[in-house]
Amino acid sequence: MQNAEPADVLDARFAAAKEASHRLARATTAEKDAALQSIADLLVERIGQVVTANAADLEAGRAAELGDGLLDRLKLDETRVRAIASAVVDVISLTDPVGETVSGRSLPSGVRIDQVRVPLGVVGAIYEARPNVTIDIAALALKSGNAVVLRGGSAAERTNAVLVQVLRDALDRVGLPADAVQTVDDFGRAGAQHLMRARDFVDVLIPRGSARLIQAVVTEATVPVIETGAGVVHMFLDASAREDWAVELVENAKVQRPSVCNALETLLVHRDAAERLLPPVLARLEASGVTVHADDRVRALHPSALPVTDEDWATEHMSLDISVGVVDSLDDALDHIRRYSTKHTESIVTNDLGNAERFLNEVDAAAVMVNASTRFTDGAEFGFGAEVGISTQKLHARGPMGLPQLTSTKWLVRGAGHVRA
Amino acid sequence: MQNAEPADVLDARFAAAKEASHRLARATTAEKDAALQSIADLLVERIGQVVTANAADLEAGRAAELGDGLLDRLKLDETRVRAIASAVVDVISLTDPVGETVSGRSLPSGVRIDQVRVPLGVVGAIYEARPNVTIDIAALALKSGNAVVLRGGSAAERTNAVLVQVLRDALDRVGLPADAVQTVDDFGRAGAQHLMRARDFVDVLIPRGSARLIQAVVTEATVPVIETGAGVVHMFLDASAREDWAVELVENAKVQRPSVCNALETLLVHRDAAERLLPPVLARLEASGVTVHADDRVRALHPSALPVTDEDWATEHMSLDISVGVVDSLDDALDHIRRYSTKHTESIVTNDLGNAERFLNEVDAAAVMVNASTRFTDGAEFGFGAEVGISTQKLHARGPMGLPQLTSTKWLVRGAGHVRA
């Protein structure tokens, strides 16, 4: 296939996805649910094939000296494949957003207008390493009536090729167009770049992965992007913070799952609470294996901490590391957050109502919290049932995205020969 | 000012707008309404200054041999300035979208989540020739708590400089930051290009103007864009269309205001209705001064029509010209529309319920109509009170945009020491 002109081959695939998206947009919920069941069934049928392809990817990854974390994210064994299939079955039970009437009224003239949910059309997904995303994102896109074009990263190329074939064959089995699932992986980086500029065919791009990947997509794409994201997440312990809450909230936010975007990265403490709160909080963190990077005022109280650097404040560690600083006031905490926040999730621990309200009002982030763990910013926790990603941008979707965020709307206007006066 | 490094001067302005946007975001509705009244008052006070600056722009425009249409759009006399001031006063009566709770619930753990509307932040507007847009877009942005950066096109540069000063002084008069209104006009095209890439400061770009302008912004911008739009608007007269409705709807859609985006550009007629409908419809259009560009089957019935070209089908005439063709079926009409539609507004005239439903379901456009004039796609007609533009994209906003479309949301999360299980 690489012998043909890449742009022409890719455009043909994108056009096929667009054409298939028209059929998907009209598919009933029952048809789409049958497709999801078919995907789950076929995944289980082809476990051997998936695991074999994955073993080849893992071997190539080891030869290329990929890190252990990356190799673990890449790995699919039988248990993991069954878990992916089971997650697809879970999508069946979610409410189909397509066709929902969002608003509607009769105009003074008697013309009736109704705003109804419709699929976006063709969703492009650009992600790295985790081959489960191939199935996850396709399942969510299909349930919401969209076709998908996938770019899964070269490390998982063999695995993803098998998974894409599973998706296409599963659609075909239930009489829906296989062309609703396309890949650009066989064209490598050129495929990704062509996808990012395919405005005629692709309605939205959703990058999922490292800050570097997302930045590249945002900068290079002409297709509209939903930025998902990096989380340099802060928690501010105000002067009035309860010690027991502070200890539990900081530990939960930092330690429960340090590799995800809603995990805590930076802890700020009001100077009037530093002596009271820092010893128990930092003792709990260190008992959980966390490495503390701290400013001088923290280190005066807790000399075992490493010195924090300016780069640390701006870093999403995604590991058991935390940056800790003392601030003189709520204003200083707000200034620090404004400077370093990636606008994902920010939290205050306080018993001061005025400070709580100021924090909620003045912090600009997808989720702003009082006395709650930052780990709550999550589609499942918010009751969405599934999560496409967490948007850190302000347009279209902000915060955890569920199925409705994979739709647009259109206005249906019904008259009886009505003309505008 | 052009002696300084342009990028530095512009970045300083954008940063000032961002800083001011934080104050605007917290402004009460009463404060914002006072600012709007202040803008209206100051506009009227400075009518002489506005008209003088506009006369200089008009003189330069005539020297540069701008067309009569462009010169008319550029022109501001006392009556027009008063009308702009009056439109600003109208915005006072619109509901402030900021602070509206869009959704909210208690999670099973007892954590409370509320999704509330917040301003987008800094709105960049890029437009051409019509200086009234300077005031209109600033008024709507300010009411929804946003700062603005304006790029109004070189033809109106002197007029816009006066209007921007009116906006800034009006904010200052009521104690809001003048820096919430910025311009890049004094840096010409370089200013526009820098604005399009100011991701650190500008949250959204709204281009308003020609298809060429919008295409340039969509292609060059890295700031997220809301595409507003060009309308190659179709009406399909189905075999069962009522003659009286067909005549009135086509005339209203084409003739009432041919220079706007919801005006009709292409008329398609089912072959079984061509002999019945085309003579009265085309007679009415020609009586209204419309030039008919038609395919061979239309011309066989109506020899005075000019031949239609392939380019005509793809053209938004914005004039008293219409492209007319005969199609063999609803499917052929849908195919034609899919090929040439700019996804703004499409309408069918029919008495066949099945065909009406197919048209509503299968046409992909911001507004899809049955037996209604395409002129209804309009913020004021839809009851929004004001219109930021008509979005022809699928992300964030689709169709007429009111004040809520100039906002985002954030999630407020309130716990009592809640950690995630």
Automatic annotation (TrEMBL), chains A, B:
E.C. code: 1.2.1.41
Annotated protein name in UniProt: Gamma-glutamyl phosphate reductase
InterPro entries, alphabetized: Ald_DH/histidinol_DH (IPR016161), Ald_DH_C (IPR016163), Ald_DH_N (IPR016162), Aldehyde_DH_dom (IPR015590), G-glutamylP_reductase_CS (IPR020593), Glu-5-SA_DH (IPR012134), GPR_dom (IPR000965)
Role played: Catalyzes the NADPH-dependent reduction of L-glutamate 5-phosphate into L-glutamate 5-semialdehyde and phosphate. The product spontaneously undergoes cyclization to form 1-pyrroline-5-carboxylate.
Catalysed reactions listed for this entry: L-glutamate 5-semialdehyde + phosphate + NADP(+) = L-glutamyl 5-phosphate + NADPH + H(+)
CDD domains: ALDH_F18-19_ProA-GPR
Compartment(s) of residence: Cytoplasm
UniProt record similarity statement: Belongs to the gamma-glutamyl phosphate reductase family.
Biological processes per GO annotation: L-proline biosynthetic process
Gene3D superfamilies in alphabetical order: Aldehyde Dehydrogenase, Chain A, domain 1 (3.40.605.10), Aldehyde Dehydrogenase, Chain A, domain 2 (3.40.309.10)
A cellular component term, taken from the record's GO annotations: cytoplasm
Taxonomic path: Bacteria, Bacillati, Actinomycetota, Actinomycetes, Micrococcales
First-tier enzyme category under EC: oxidoreductase
Gene Ontology MF term list: glutamate-5-semialdehyde dehydrogenase activity; NADP binding
